[in-house]
Amino acid sequence: MISDWRFRRGDPIVVLTGAGISRESGLDTFRDIGGVWSKVKLEDVATPEGYARDPQQVQDFYNARRAQLTEAAIQPNAAHRALAALEAEWRGPVFLVTQNIDDLHERAGSRSLLHMHGELRRVRCTACGDNREEAGAVTIADVCPKCSAIGTRRPDIVWFGEMPYGMDRIYEALVDCELFISIGTSGTVYPAAGFVTEARAHGAYCLELNLEPSHGASMFHRVLNGPATELVPRLVE
Ligand code: BV8
């Protein structure tokens, strides 16, 4: 469908994804009914203050979500695969910025990928900065394998009030892109929710694919509503 439009193969594309693209893979979104923030208070588990108050509660929250990624039922879906195919076939820059901390985009084959809110499968040491893959559970008694500090290993996740990763690179891509596609995000969390404004201000065509109109839907030139596993493959075919 993209190729039906005025875009030439090779025009730079920026794609932003949120929790909605992983919903049909079995991972909860945050703000839908029954979502993550309906089961635990954001302030307790996704802020530096919450971590300072009760670090083990935060470790347990992320340990459970990390363990879920290894369940056989949790697999990339047709939307993740379609974005990987777009990157392989478009012959131009397709830069995928995800708010998600799961690993489904890379498992689907996406390579030009930035996890702006961090990655569930990475843990970093607040004493020495060591940052490495971690498939198992982390506790407050953990010893840093690099500097031997105790209890300094935290999830490599961007919490509220912390600076997201890759912001300079993201804004450069938003200035240059011809097409900005937002998929499966409610448009609630900044700075990601403001990317459409930046892209539109620099002349990009802005397209939203979401189960329902997001908070920022009015900023998009076109909004398509439906499940990602239906909309994204159709967009890419
Ligand atoms: C920062 C942790 C600055 C990881 C998360 C203005 C400008 C800048 C900042 C702010 C601002 N206003 C307020 C702020 C502060 C704050 C913020 O935005 N607060 C909100 C609540 C108002 N932002 C920050 O703190 C950010 N940091 O700006 O730092 C700074 C400057 C200088 C120095 C230091 C700092 C940090 C934000 C990141 C926080 N971390 N999570 C984790 O545990 O996962 S955010 C959290 O929300 C998740 O990471 C998630 O990725 C993100 C966005 O949620 P969505 O992905 O959109 O998920 P949601 O459930 O909301 O929506 C799902 C959508 O999918 C729905 O629309 C649904 O309809 C749709 N859907 C469902 N099923 C399907 C579907 N779509 C398609 N198909 C389906 N099948």
From TrEMBL:
Record field: catalytic activity: N(6)-acetyl-L-lysyl-[protein] + NAD(+) + H2O = 2''-O-acetyl-ADP-D-ribose + nicotinamide + L-lysyl-[protein]; N(6)-succinyl-L-lysyl-[protein] + NAD(+) + H2O = 2''-O-succinyl-ADP-D-ribose + nicotinamide + L-lysyl-[protein]
Residues binding NAD(+): 99-102, 184-186, 210-212, 228
Binding note for cofactor: Binds 1 zinc ion per subunit.
Active site per the UniProt annotation: 117
Main location: cytoplasm
GO CC annotation terms, alphabetical: cytoplasm
Catalytic class of the enzyme: transferase
Binding site for Zn(2+): 125, 128, 144, 147
Chain positions recorded as substrate binding sites: 62, 65
Compartment list: Cytoplasm
Keyword Coiled coil: no
GO MF, one annotated term: histone deacetylase activity, NAD-dependent
Keywords per UniProt: Cytoplasm, Metal-binding, NAD, Transferase, Zinc
Cofactor(s), names only, from the UniProt record: Zn(2+)
Pfam family, one: SIR2
CDD domains: SIRT5_Af1_CobB
EC number: 2.3.1.286
Record carries keyword ATP-binding: no
PANTHER family linked to this entry: NAD-DEPENDENT PROTEIN DEACYLASE, NAD-DEPENDENT PROTEIN DEACYLASE SIRTUIN-5, MITOCHONDRIAL-RELATED
Domain notes: 2 residues (Tyr-62 and Arg-65) present in a large hydrophobic pocket are probably involved in substrate specificity. They are important for desuccinylation activity, but dispensable for deacetylation activity.
Similarity annotation: Belongs to the sirtuin family. Class III subfamily.
Protein's name according to its UniProt entry: NAD-dependent protein deacylase
